[in-house]
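U., I forgot to send this yesterday:
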Amino acid sequence: MHTTDDTSSAPPSPRDRILWAAATLLAEGGREAVSTRAVSAAAGVQPPTIYRQFGDMRGLLDAVAEDGFTRYLRGKVALGRTEDPMADLRAGWDAHIGFGLANPALYALMYGEPRPGAMPTAAAEARAILEELLRRVAAAGRLRVGVDRATRLIHAAGVGVVLTLIAVEDADRDRAVATLTREAILAAVTTDSTPPGGPAAGGGSGHVTAHAVALKALLPEAPVAFTPAERGLLAEWLDRFIQEP
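Result:
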């Protein structure tokens, strides 16, 4: 959100004041507290200003959610990356859970009102970060399902855990649920360890699948000059190994 100081920064714009007021009301009183009258009073603007800036209250709530996603992404990016993609994946899960529990009303607005085909830009960026993490896991020979399926499973599990926990009074929350679910979902989509000698050295059907997932994840970086048709055919063949019966 726009910030000011006494010497160099300009006063916050009406749009920034409206966003700040709506986000504050949301955090303090939930979705029901974000009314036209309350927002205009808190922001020091007339109600028509809200509609000129955001179209309607749905547009304002979308903007608040977008701002929330942006703050969430800043936290994700700040985590950085290590040489261990599994550790990074766990850290990303924990950051997601922590953000949701720290911002329950905002999280419910961001994830509790899904609309098909209407994904905020920051939400798409958050998904891209998770996909990139999972590509690194796949390249290490640790992913037992395709990157897209793993992304959907982990996202669904994470959102479900947060929405379940924030529906319970803080004193009654079993926070171990988040860790147990994390390990259960990771056990479902990843292998226990990288095969000795790297992804190509393992055996068994599970490792065959992991090898296929790894190769598909690395395909865009392959030094071989495949034609688009050849690359597509190889990806299709690898999918035969990856797809579950």
